[in-house]
What does this fold into?
Amino acid sequence: MEGSTIIFYLLALLTVVSGILAVTATNILRAAISLLFALIGIAGIYFWLDYQFIAAVQIVVYVGGIVVLIIFSIFLTQSAGEKMPSQKLGRTVFSALAAFCGFALVLIQLFQHNFPISKDLTLTPKVADIGTQMLGVKEEGYALPFELVSMLLLAALIGCIVIAMRSKPQTT
Amino acid sequence: MMQPGLYHILIISAALFFIGVFGFFTRRNLITMLMSIELILNSVNLNFIAFNKYVWPHKMDGLFFSLFVIAIAAAEAAVAIAIIINLYRSHQSIDVEDAGEMKY
It folds into this structure.
């Protein structure tokens, strides 16, 4: 067995096990740390696929941004060592059943379908090409969605400030 | 064990998606529900990248879709956390059962 195969299975194991821990851990801070490792595992899979740019974006935005934001909000809203109350057994069992049935359905569909897998898998996108196509205004250019996302980020920024400011005059 | 290919990545992605769905069903805490949503969005990104790599390696559309999903997920997480902290200020709790009056 090759080294890259072993690395892939290790990354897959890391991702799935930390994903399961992230949704089942009773300590909320521990759940957040497990989420961190699941996201790092996904970034590792992107590296394994030779998509370095998206892996770097994943690490910067998710691991460095969103998880830190989540951990900060945990510290702001509850004491970190506190355990969450456990759920009703019936709810857990039926949720697990629903999730498992959905997973089985997707797997059945997946193995019945034959994807047209390309011949040359060594091709990887270069960062220069990504930049050119991202800001291209010709056919296959992504300038319009790029501008739309920038407007959305601005709207989200203003929305966050408005939501966070609104209750201040009432409390003081 | 086989050489990992498209199907292996799709299986991981499907597993992550349904782990996220399970967490979304069972958790009653708004922050942990947000974490489940992040897992679901990441599984979608993994799918886009895998299809881009194995089915259309000459194009980069899957990569751009993933980039836009990541940007929108960041905006969504920021707004959601602002709402959660605001809710905590007024209710002293971030449990969804205590947030019932947001419905009306």
Q: What stands out?
A: The domain at 6-95 of chain B is CATH 1.10.287.3510 (Helix Hairpins). Chain B touches chain A through 73 residues (CB under 8 Å). Chain B has one domain: 6-95.
